[in-house]
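mind reviewing both lines:
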Amino acid sequence: MTVLIAEDDRATRARITAYLEAWGYRAVEAADGADAWEKFQIFDPSIIISDWQMPGIDGVELIHKIRGDKEDQSYHYAILLTSRAEMKDLVEGLEAGADDFVAKPFDKDELRVRVQAGERIIRLEQALEEQNLKLEASNREITQANQRMRESLLAAATIQQSYLPPAEMEIGSTRFACRYEPCEELAGDTLNIVPLDQRHVALYTIDVSGHGVPAALLSVHLSRILTRLGGSDAILHGCDEDSEGAPSAPSEILAQLNRKFSFDTENQQYFTMLIGILDLRKRLFQYCSAGHPGPILVSGGKPTILRPTPPAVGFFPEPAFTEQTLELAAGDRLLFYTDGVFEAANDAGEEFGEERLATYFTDANGDGLAGALSQALNAARKWSGGRPFDDDISMLAAEIG
């Protein structure tokens, strides 16, 4: 696998090259951003390691040019070397299309792990592209291709979960927590917390119909395109710091996904989604449900279950997705979830239900946000007799600061 190194410091560049070649990679060196852009077009590297600050074209501009290259259909994993740690700098790098960051001065083992993670994602991307080509051939070839790829995709469960956010995180004074529990090695569920700019954060949960490889493939593909903030095919966008407008509207995000993923009549595949944009400054939450449960709002110690609105994504060519706006206050909590948690059934066949889910989440209001999620999930597990869940479970919560 070819790795392009864009670094204006000769000693650092030579050291990275030596490491990569020792790890079995083909290294291509570039002395600055302009040189890197030329060599990118010649060698078509799978991974780009670029210093942020370089004369002429810097690392962010280089990645932006790579993501904007409409003639290049393959995906390239971009790692920025940077001494910057401010949120605005990381947002700038993500908006340009960076996949990962390595702090300078870098550690050899950390760099190796980051590059190996990029290699795994590239190989999964290549497998997905190969699968999509085979889907166009015939149903027989689809079945054979799925069978051949099943073993490797099961091994890719860690790659799928690499798209997930940390179990707990803070952005400004707002806290976030999530729980993700697939019922098999690979899941049809996914969720994420995506900072869009200095004040807006995108939150979403997705539930792909079915289980196994087909659902996991679509889930991984959705995770990838919904974490890319830069490039011509990006769906999520932020807005300028001084702008009073909102970033990508939830209804438009769903409309774009609906156009990309029309209903698969052969596999009967579709997905439900809850997507929202949280304005941290104004404490406004604008969201849209596409046949997806929730959210649950806990305000003043009282839960409100906000019901879903149809349709799911892909069912109709031009559906109307209904947006809702919540005015929040400090201390309010939001809970996103997929149906696996409230459909957990006891021995009598009675489901755990959304009301119990809301009650257990609310009763833990004095605990930390992660503790509230754990209490609700453990209650559902106990309700079902401690048995493994029959469906994937995704839960995402926010506590307004």
